[in-house]
Amino acid sequence: MTQDFISPLADLPGVADSIASARDRVDSLLWDRALGAKGAALRVDVSRQNARASAAIDGIDISMSAWSSGDAFDDSPIGRAAAGVWRLEESLRDQLLVWPTAPMQALARMHSLVAADVVEDSDRLGRPRDGVQVDDPLRIKAVPDVNSMKIRLSGLVEIATSDSGAPAIIEAAIIHGELVALRPFEWGSGLVARAAMRVVLGARGVDPDLLVMTDAAMYSIGRPAYVDAVRNYVSGTPDGVARWIRFCAESVAVGARLSSDRLAELPAR
Length: 269
Description:
67% of the residues lie in helices and 0% in strands. It contains 12 helices and no strands.
């Protein structure tokens, strides 16, 4: 997969319209004058909402109140996993600087943070798997073999580091889809994949301050819809890939609306 592959994806049915709608929603959020006074508070809420939602998609389902209070991070298996998701979330602004030139370094760092309290063998942190045994919380199955995974990871790096004519949302969707499909890490690939999508959107200037509740939107649209969209991507058919990109674009649009709604609710300071 090369950059020449992803640019034509804009011509798939419904993709251009869904991207235009998403960009309009994001631009409406970013041009809101209330951000001047409320932007910092919104960023805190967005981080919590996205972390909680991405974790819940992978079965780490903890109440929003527990995330806000810190009770989510207790010394239990689910609490340790949640703590890793929060470390990952807090690192994303740093990854915006790393991603454009060293995407594998960014992915390794993100995985090391999210999986530190879950993966027993510290040598496996940030390193692609060397077998086909992976945690599969979405029950996607069809795990690519190691050689195929490595080849496609190389393609992912080429996409991330090449100048692209493709819209940023397409690039973000393909990075997300590839990481979920490949499951390059034994645990936590989906968490890293969703974070990487947001990093791409930030690095490409769509959401530079990470203010869009993209993961919260995916969760609100519904875990079954997310799983169905992933399976469409994994199918590799033009229709399946188009459905996946449209789902990702819808998530950006809904996420921007959720953020705008929350911005309006925040008290002025």
